[in-house]
Amino acid sequence: MEKLNSNDFRKNVESGEGLCLVDFSATWCGPCKMQAPVLEELEAEKGYTIYSVDVDESNDIAGQYNVNAVPSLMIFENGRLKDTLVGFHSKEALIEAMEKYK
């Protein structure tokens, strides 16, 4: 799972092609720490493109997408926001959410 700063986010997500999942999280967040291994499993098993954005380091991007709680998981397709999931989600729930856009 690649960690993105604000510039990388603009290049890889907003100007990117295809489907990706962005995990807006924070190092101090307990549920975020629980979510990370689930996302790593998904990336390895399903081949999804998954990025991580630290809301404290990239608060401009977090503000742009109205991230008010972490973890916030956002699905983008061809640079456009398609769906937002707030809080911890199981692997199955994330697969279901991603498959809607495949």
Provide structural commentary.
This protein has 102 residues and is of the alpha/beta class. The protein has one domain (2-99): Glutaredoxin. It is built from four helices and five strands; from the N terminus they run E-H-E-H-E-H-E-E-H. A five-stranded mixed beta sheet has the order 1-3-2-4-5, with helices on both faces. The chain is globular and about 30 Å long. The relative contact order is 0.23.
Strands across the major sheet, in which order?
A: 1-3-2-4-5
Largest sheet: 5 strands, mixed
The quaternary structure here is single chain
How much β-strand is present in the residues?
A: 25-35%
Total beta strand runs: 5
In one word, what is the shape? globular
* Overall pLDDT score: 96
Termini gap:
20 Å
- The CATH superfamily is Glutaredoxin
Estimate nothing, just give the exact number of structural domains. 1
Q: What's the architecture, going by CATH? A: 3-Layer(aba) Sandwich
Please give the radius of gyration in angstroms: 12 Å
What class do helices, strands and sheet pairing give?
Answer: alpha/beta
Number of helices: 4
Amount of helix: 40-55%
Which helices and strands occur, and which strands form pairs?
Layout: E1 2-3, H1 6-14, E2 19-25, H2 30-46, E3 49-54, H3 59-64, E4 72-77, E5 80-86, H4 91-99
Q: What would a concise description of this structure say?
A:
This protein has 102 residues and is α/β, with parallel strands linked by helices.
Short key terms for the protein model shown above:
102 residues; alpha/beta; Glutaredoxin; 40% helix; five-stranded mixed beta sheet
